[in-house]
Amino acid sequence: MGDLSYSQRIAQFYVDADIEAIPQRVFEHTKNVIVDWAGCGIGGANLDSTKMIKEVFMSESGNHDCTVFCGQKASESHAAFINGAASHGLEMDDASYDAGGHPAVVILPAAMAVAETVNAKGKDFLLSVIWGYDMMTRVGRGVVPDNCFERGWHPTAVCGIFGATAAVAWLLKLDASKIANALGIAGGFASGNLECYADGSLTKRLNPANAAMSAIYAARLAAVGYTGPKWVFEGKHGFFRSYTDNPTPERMLENLDYSEYPIEIASFKPYACCRYNHSPIDSILKIMTDHKLKADEIEKIVIDVCNMAIRAVVEPKSIKYNPPNTAAAQFSLPYTATCAALFGDVSVNQFTDEKLQDPAIRNFINKIEMVHTGEMDQYLPDIFAASVTIHTEDGRELNHLTKFSKGDPENPMTTKEIKDKFMALSQMTISANRARKIYDAIMDLENLSTIKDLTKLF
Q1: Strand, helix or coil at 320?
Q2: With 70 as the cut, is the pLDDT of residue 1 above it?
Q3: pLDDT confidence tier of residue 406, bands split at 50, 70 and 90
Q4: Angle CA(33)–CA(38)–CA(44) in degrees, nearest 5?
Q5: What pairs with residue 366 in β-bridges?
Q6: Does 2 have pLDDT greater than 80?
Q7: Quick one: which of 27, 32, 148, 23 has its CA closest to 409?
Q8: Buried b vs exposed e over 353-378: b needs ≥16 C-beta within 10 Å?
Q9: CA-to-CA distance for 403 and 387, rounded, in angstroms?
């Protein structure tokens, strides 16, 4: 295999896989991933941003064979776009540090749309998701997401498109040559800018949507013989040279032996905001619980953050201390820390126009002080640690360091907690009875003779 490119080697890896050798625990975890994504998508189906996207993408003529959250149909590519945006809107979708972002909101919308089109079995859908996470993780490890981020790229989208392409290629049963071509084509489609972090504009929700849609086009083009560059990753003008500094492309080929399944290291989110906020939230909740502390006893909260958090949730401070909309609030550490202190809750309930004007929040938010001592940087790039010190009105200083936030593999959410989250988010849009039927269908995916037995419930 010495003369094969990275994309060719990885494509052959998927084609040669012994499906029967995949441990059952991997399938069980994958079902939890799908449950988590479905909850985010159903819950986000009626957001204003989703409604605007539906208005544009469901108005065009053509075949409308694929399911959109909730209860509508669109073309294959447009269904992937809409569902990608819907499931990213609540900021509760899963994350993978190794993959560089949020895999589910790119991989699953593309995979579900194509699975419907080809009438795939439930187990094939599960397998496509497993390989999609594998591919995105390989790209994420090679691209060094922090550097990619610094250039203004959205790693979720630019890494995720390759994961989604691998998933779709699996469902289309492409051979290794065509899978490699699909990955090459995807390299030309990879995009997604993150200036939206600065002002809370809505385009962040479009980035995974566009990647999911483009992944379908990449695989569909390869299926009919279109070619893509074989050295799309490691070439002189390839992905790694274009999207990052100091890449480690050789990491793409790590564990190319079925010794790991990276979907198992995906993190789940208990809070409806950027992942950089989660460690501070956990520390605040831990201190207040352990010391039975009330918000009115707090003089100030000092949060020591890692440098990667600064650009996303700390600066510009004029926006972070006064978020103009709910999207900006999701990326405001002062706002989310305030919600944790005041309400002990940073769920979707805290991200409403009414909450943004809440006098209690506006009065407390200036008690949040954010610093960067450099101490938290020692845990990077894979751990987004935060140290919180709460200064009380009676002169105490209470500190807690959180390295692994709730939902990380090292501090996991239980299956029950994932189900409870799914039920809560789903009931923003549908009945509890319908949500339970969807949950049960996902938990039985490997036995479904057609994915439509699941999607009809949407």
Answers
A1: helix
A2: no
A3: very high
A4: 130
A5: none
A6: no
A7: 32
A8: eebbebeebeebbebbebeeeeebee
A9: 9
* Distance from C-alpha of 64 to C-alpha of 373, rounded to nearest angstrom: 54
233 phi and psi, to 5 degrees? Answer: -90, -55
Question: Residue 292 is encoded by which pair of tokens?
Answer: 């039975």
pLDDT at 199: 85
pLDDT digits (tens, 9 = 90+) for 148-163: 888 999 999 999 999 9
Amino acid 388 reads V
DSSP 362-396: HHHGGGEEEE--SGGGGGTTT---EEEEEEETTS-
Average pLDDT over residues 319-335: 95
- Residue 231: name the closest of 187, 174, 192 by CA: 187
User: Which band of pLDDT confidence, cut at 50, 70 and 90, is reported for residue 145?
Assistant: confident
CB 128 within 8 A of CB 164: no
* Residues whose CB is less than 8 angstroms from the CB of residue 107 and which lie 6 or more positions away in sequence, other chains included: 129, 132, 133, 136, 160, 163, 164, 167, 212
Q: Rounded distance, CA 371 to CA 373, Å?
A: 6
- Percent of the chain whose predicted confidence (pLDDT) is above 70: 99
Q: Can you tell me whether residue 73 is helix, strand or coil?
A: strand
Mean pLDDT of 236-254: 93
How many CB atoms are closer than 10 A to CB 62?
10
CA angle centred on 7, ends 3 and 218, rounded to 5° = 140
Letter for the amino acid at 43? G
